[in-house]
Every structure is written in structure tokens, then in C-alpha cells.
Amino acid sequence: SQWGTSQLASQYHNLFGIKGTGANSRVMTTKEYINGKWIVTKGRFRVYDSWSDSIKDHTRLMLNGTDTNQQNYDRVVHATNYQEAARGLQEAGYATDPDYAQKLISVIKAYKLYNYDK
Fold it and tell me: For 93-100, what is the mean pLDDT?
């Protein structure tokens, strides 16, 4: 969401890039890592009324999984540390970026966000 500044975050209140279908979604340009390379493509993303709604939906996604796999994010939910949770997100297919877990871990370290785990 470009730290909350992307159109997806600022106009449609989607902080996590959660994809969706139907009337409560918008088609937007996105970058995906497919077959070993980055491509620019169109994706359909959920639209929320507020950032709070986006956060609540993201929490539901982590706790309830996807429509096709209710246990998809169990490793994330039951992680005992942020590194394990980040790797669990990547393994669950949360993002197509093959470096997603390492990038997330780097941001957590850089901003000392691990202090919120105490």
C-alpha cells in the first residue's frame, strides 16, 4: 500500500492489498512475481469504507483462512516470533514476491517493531 499512500490505501482504504470480487472491489494495476519474473498486470482488490474495516477484514483472513483453505494462515497465527510469522505468510502465498518474508523482517527490525510484541 506504499505505506498508506497508494490509491488502493488512500482512496479504497485497502491497507493490505487484499484481493476481492464483486461490487465491493476495483480493478487496479499491480506487480506480481510470476514464473521467475516481475510482471505488471490487472488485479481486482477489495474496497473498504475505512482503514478500520480493512484491518478487521485482514484479521478475519488470518484467523479464518481463505475460502479454499481455512487453515491457510494457521502457521502465522500460531507463530511464536515475527520471523516465523513472516515466513509463514510467504509460505501461505500471501504475496508473490519471493523476498516478501525477508523484506517484512527487515522493516520490523529497522523500525524496532518487535517491541510491540513485549
Answer: 96
Pick 1-49's CATH classification: 2.30.29, 2.10.70, 1.10.260, 1.10.490: 2.10.70
CB 105 within 8 A of CB 88: no
- 82-90: Cβ within 8 A, 24+ apart: 82/108, 82/113, 82/114, 82/117
Catalytic residue positions? 32, 57
In angstroms, how far is the first alpha carbon of the chain from the final one? 26
Global pTM value = 0.90
C-alpha cell at 26: 476495483
CA dist 29 and 40 (Å) reads 7
Q: Identify the three-state secondary structure at position 87.
A: helix
pLDDT exceeds cutoff 80 at 82:
yes
DSSP state of 20: -
